């Protein structure tokens, strides 16, 4: 029996690798044997080795003068290779693959769509827009909702919010059940405070969480939606966590040792609010008792904060370009005992690494204001770090994780915050007699109900202005219009421009009362305000995100600034407007609380945190 017959026999028996060995022996003696090369290419493709198959198909294409069947075989392999690269975060290689595909089929809408996705992942948003638009133009059968959705995402990244909204609406015209487009549209409407029909969208999204077949909702997007409670957040997080079935690595068998290795996983070891929370904790860790390793999954950044993280007495490991599986293997190889995720389900999240169980214990802390849900019926993370105020005893069942309680506020802060230098209201364009209500939260946190309370306050506070953080022009125009329709003139709502962190902290000093947002509180921004000795009025609900400001206020013994419903929130704000002496007493309490509490004492916080880490291994 000759080699080709033997190879076919092995193929019939399912021994693809054996068949390939025999066929390659044939090529040694006859390197230009086209039929054998076609058989080898097909076998590699059948065995899902698309890289090797593509190599043979390319060679065959040159030998057979552009044979259509060979070309299509190559295109099939290139598409599979490109999708694999995309899934494993090798976006440059994915882009190259789809570019090669487009040399054969420049108008193929599927290839253009995939090419656009690779460009988007590389932050080449202008080019991705061109690719998506070409895909739409060349889709002669039926425009694709996903393409319009992704086109909207690219426009949004470039700040072209009106174009993005138009695309999301077009996606929903094609597929009214597209939950992805519905969520993106809703989130963007929140970002620009355009509230027409938004309650209907909130309800549609909430109704979706019980219908898994419609698609998954990003857990981060619902934190700012007022109709979701902590039980809903658990459902959303679990649905999101369950979308990829991941098999854990082998069980950790690292022996208990005196010096524990703590791995911190984050996309935000850079110029990000996380710096002002976590940096001193990482710096303060007892290096004699703990090995500290930072696993970074964010973008390259030429910022001083990013460099400071790299210069810490910790191992800094960049996993940005690694797949979740490779990242998990790397963490396992580094013998991490406790992996602490500081990003959660936020941008550039790598939280699915925890599903591989690369460490002995996995902790959800700080980056995501809620539970990470269940994966394969088990908690994605073993523990969540909190305090008794944020997760009271009667809410622990709304969290997949077991709660680890810190003795003080769950939120740490760096000690070396900007020095306060005296500021006046005139420095920022206000009359010295103007009472300043302010909220420096992102516009995504300002709900229609919240803004209506602020409008009502302005009506009842004739000498007051509302000072908000500048963000985007549509957001400002929408708020001014909403205010005017409710009887408040444009000049009573002003916007604070983007400035340095030092200037931003200092300008809090001229604020008479910081108005917190609900259901997503100001978190780092509350600490900013307290550092500048500025009173923060909050409304605490039942969700994690709605209780952080209350936790901070409790820490500094200012619980009189915590309310639990809209009426009490409004009444308290108006009372403090009308009673300057009472407001002054609260400011004096903040000064004392800031000095005496643990809020800005990272050494105390680190000691308490390290005790929790050690206790995990003592139990």
Report on this model:
With 619 residues, the protein is of the alpha/beta class. Among the domains are: 146 residues, Rossmann fold (3-Layer(aba) Sandwich); 172 residues, Glycogen Phosphorylase B (Rossmann fold, 3-Layer(aba) Sandwich). It is built from 25 helices and 15 strands. The strands form 3 sheets. Strands 3-2-1-4-5-8-9 form a 7-stranded parallel beta sheet, covered by helices on one side. The chain has a 6-stranded parallel beta sheet with strand order 12-11-10-13-14-15, with helices on both faces. Strands 6-7 form a two-stranded antiparallel sheet. Strand 13, helix 21 and strand 14 form a beta-alpha-beta unit. Helix 5 packs antiparallel against helix 6 and helix 7 runs antiparallel to helix 8. The N and C termini lie far apart (67 Å).
Q: Which key phrases capture this entry?
A:
7-stranded parallel beta sheet; Rossmann fold; 6-stranded parallel beta sheet; alpha/beta; 25 helices
């Amino acid at each position: 029996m000759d080699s080709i017959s033997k190879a076919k026999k092995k193929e019939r028996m399912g021994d693809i690798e054996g068949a390939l060995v025999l066929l390659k022996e044939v090529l040694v003696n006859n390197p230009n044997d086209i039929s054998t090369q076609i058989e080898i290419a097909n076998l590699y493709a059948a065995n899902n080795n698309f890289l090797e198959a593509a190599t043979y198909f390319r060679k065959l294409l040159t030998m057979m003068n552009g044979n259509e069947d060979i070309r299509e075989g190559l295109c099939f392999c290139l598409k599979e290779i490109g999708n694999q690269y995309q899934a494993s975060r090798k976006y440059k290689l994915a882009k190259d693959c789809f570019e090669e595909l487009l040399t054969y089929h420049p108008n193929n809408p599927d290839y253009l769509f995939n090419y656009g996705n690779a460009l988007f992942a590389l932050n080449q948003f202008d080019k991705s827009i061109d690719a998506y638009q070409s895909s739409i133009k060349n889709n002669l059968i039926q425009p694709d909702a996903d393409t319009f959705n992704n086109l909207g995402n690219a426009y949004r990244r470039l700040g072209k919010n009106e174009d993005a909204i138009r695309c999301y609406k077009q996606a929903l015209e094609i597929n009214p059940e597209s939950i992805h487009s519905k969520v993106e549209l809703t989130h963007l409407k929140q970002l620009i405070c355009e509230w027409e029909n938004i309650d209907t969208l909130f309800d549609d999204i909430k109704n979706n969480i019980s219908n898994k077949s419609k698609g998954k909702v990003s857990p981060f997007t619902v934190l700012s939606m007022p109709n979701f409670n902590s039980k809903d957040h658990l459902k959303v997080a679990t649905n999101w966590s369950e979308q990829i079935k991941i098999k854990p690595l082998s069980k950790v068998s690292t022996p208990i040792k005196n010096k524990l290795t703590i791995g911190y996983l984050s996309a935000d070891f850079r110029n990000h609010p996380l710096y002002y929370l976590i940096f001193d904790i990482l710096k303060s860790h007892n290096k004699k008792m703990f090995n500290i390793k930072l696993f970074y999954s964010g973008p390259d950044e030429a910022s001083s904060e990013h460099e400071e993280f790299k210069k810490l007495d910790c191992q800094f490991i960049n996993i940005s370009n690694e797949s979740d599986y490779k990242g998990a293997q790397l963490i396992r190889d580094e013998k991490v005992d406790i992996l602490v995720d500081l990003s959660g389900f936020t941008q550039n999240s790598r939280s699915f690494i925890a599903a591989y169980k690369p460490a002995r214990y996995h902790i959800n802390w700080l980056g995501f204001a809620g539970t990470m849900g269940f994966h394969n019926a088990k908690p994605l993370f073993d523990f969540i770090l909190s305090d008794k105020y944020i997760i009271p005893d009667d809410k622990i069942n709304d969290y997949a994780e077991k709660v680890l309680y810190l003795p003080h506020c769950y939120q740490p802060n760096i000690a070396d915050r900007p020095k306060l230098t005296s500021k006046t209201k005139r420095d920022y364009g206000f009359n010295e007699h103007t009472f300043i209500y302010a909220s420096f939260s992102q516009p995504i946190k300002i709900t229609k109900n919240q803004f209506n309370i602020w409008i009502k306050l302005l009506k009842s506070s004739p000498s007051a202005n509302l000072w908000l953080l500048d963000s985007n022009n549509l957001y400002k125009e929408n708020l001014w219009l909403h205010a005017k329709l409710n009887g408040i003139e444009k000049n009573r709502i002003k916007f604070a421009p983007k400035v340095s962190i030092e200037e931003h902290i200092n300008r809090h000093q001229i604020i008479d009362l910081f108005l917190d947002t609900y259901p997503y509180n100001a978190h780092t921004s509350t600490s900013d305000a307290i550092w500048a000795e500025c009173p923060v009025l909050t409304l605490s609900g039942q969700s994690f995100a709605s209780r952080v400001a209350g936790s901070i206020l409790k820490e500094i013994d200012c619980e009189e600034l915590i309310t639990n419903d809209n009426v009490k929130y409004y009444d308290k704000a108006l009372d403090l407007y009308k009673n300057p002496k009472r407001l002054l007493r609260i400011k004096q309490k903040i000064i004392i609380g800031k000095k005496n509490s643990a809020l800005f004492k990272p050494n105390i916080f680190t000691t308490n945190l390290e005790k929790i880490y050690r206790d995990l291994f003592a139990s």
